Amino acid sequence: MRELQIVLIATAVVCGVCTVLTVLLLLAERFIANYGRCTIDINQGARRLEVRGGSPLLGTLMEEGVFIPSACGGKGSCGECKVKVLAGGGPIAPTEAPLLSDQQRTANLRISCQVKVRNDMAIEVPPELFSVREYQAVVERIVDLTHDIKELRLKLIEPGEIEFTAGQYIQLKAPPYAHNEAVYRAYSVASPPDEKDHLELIIRLVPGGICTTWVFEHLTEGHTVSLNGPYGKFRLSDSDREMVWIAGGSGMAPFWSMVRFMKAHNIARKCTYFFGAVRKRDLFLVDELRQLERELDWFTFVPALSGPAAEDNWSGETGLITEVVDRHIADGSNMEGYLCGSGGMIDAAVKVLLKKGIAEDCIFYDKFT
Amino acid sequence: MKHIPQERRIVERMVPGVLCLEGFLGSDPRSLSEIIETDRRALEDIGLDCQSVARRLEKVYEIAVANLERPVQVGTDLEAVHLSAMGRIPCPWGGCGLWPKGDVVLTDRTTGRVYRFTALSMHLIGLHGFFQGRGHRYRLEPDEIARLLGLGKEGSQ
Known about the structure:
The complex is a heterodimer of chains A (369) and B (157). Chain A is of the alpha/beta class. Chain A has 3 domains: 37-129, Beta-grasp domain (Ubiquitin-like (UB roll), Roll); 132-231, Elongation Factor Tu (Ef-tu), domain 3 (Beta Barrel); 242-367, Rossmann fold (3-Layer(aba) Sandwich). In chain A, 26% of the residues lie in helices and 30% in strands. Chain A is built from 8 helices and 17 strands. Chain A has helices at 2-32, 57-63, 102-106, 210-217, 252-264, 286-295, 321-328, 343-355; strands spanning 37-42, 47-52, 82-87, 109-111, 121-124, 133-144, 149-158, 169-174, 183-188, 198-204, 224-231, 242-248, 271-277, 299-305, 317-318, 335-341, 363-367. In chain A, the strands form 3 sheets. Chain A has a 6-stranded antiparallel sheet. In chain A, helix 6 (286-295) links the parallel strand 13 (271-277) and strand 14. In chain A, helix 7 (321-328) runs parallel beside helix 8. Chain A is elongated and about 95 Å long. Helix content of chain B is 36%, strand content 20%. Chain B contains 5 helices and 4 strands; from the N terminus they run αααββββαα. A 4-stranded antiparallel sheet of chain B has the order 1-2-3-4. In chain B, strand 2 and strand 3 form a beta hairpin. In chain B, helix 3 runs antiparallel to helix 4. In chain B, 43% of the residues are buried. Classes of the chains: A alpha/beta (369), B alpha+beta (157). The A-B interface holds A 71, 75, 77-79, 95, 97-99, 178-181, 185-187, 204, 206-210, 213, 248-250, 276, 278, 282, 306-307, 320-322, 341-345, 348, 368-369 and B 13, 15-22, 65-71, 82-88, 90, 94-98, 100-103, 116, 137.
């Protein structure tokens, strides 16, 4: 009986201590870790935000409608959400350090999801991010373009329209599913900018990829999705130089947007579009691009296969897309190059274009990074 | 067994859904330290270390990437193809930068066996001695991949 009393008293004491500690922690959270109202000055007064301190900078900015690109959703793993912090950022956190080069540290860049707003801050962001918004959209259509590439057609519902430039990208949110947390992934817009109430995306399955697996295995027509954008500086220049476009796989997307934009706006700028694939089953939108080639005397489409099978009955260009470009372009000294695809393809294509005389500052690319 | 600093934190980032859909450990019930130590010994038995395997994988990777998804022969009866993918992935150890996604698929034509690895796989093997957990699609058995690449006592280092 006495032993039972001791056990009961001990249990009561432990419970009491735990309760007191919990109350103390809550009070600490309420009064000590309360950073109160803080001011975030963006781009030297271009915008001033009055915010409640205590949360990461990335999320705080998002709540105020300032979207910084982030692929991992603020988990500090992608390193995409860098912003220049001029004042009030505190020391670099251990979670930021691996994601910042010496040069970036010198330039005051910080990983915004790992910087807490604790006091007044001054930051700099690219001004074009002020036009980035969050959108809700309904999946209107999903089309299999190849065995591992799908086209999503989204109808924007809130806001109902988006302004973007052909070549820019958005970030699609994959919501939590199975054991995965929410992530954002970047996809170039494939539809032309004049179609403001719709967005088309071309998405290739990444084995083991959280977002693409969600798109391929869980997303169906009628689903509502979240996205934000537009982002990116990949776009047509203002010059009238002849253009060479080079792409592979889902790198098709920005060019599918650009060519339809140019057609709609009667921009008759000479352009040859080289699109590389391995086999015929990897090609898509060929009929549509051939049709544009017939309609537009300034546009030439050159699909090429690097490893056609006998059953492909392929009579078109063959070889690596860089070899095909090498054969087709004689003098590139008055041309511009536009590239979209894997890092390997971009690196190889840049070498070919430089060899052909295209100036380095006339080569624009959107790497799959 | 060699203790890995901050093993718990690293393993937390290796579970499915944190950095990638399938994580890094597969169905392997062993601890991270045990996986790494066992693999190190397997290589030691054939006179190799992780860095030499990583270096040979890097050569295969470079050849495959340069062929822009076209299959290419990288040894007798050994074919490699790089399947590009968008995005980069961080190392679960942290502090090692970001690695481009995209698989190199290595096919042994004599056995039909297929092996997959990525830029991150090469980094994990070379710097951390981690060949991933058994049952994972990117798991490479150290002695098997070494033999395949012509390394070790029977191969030509």
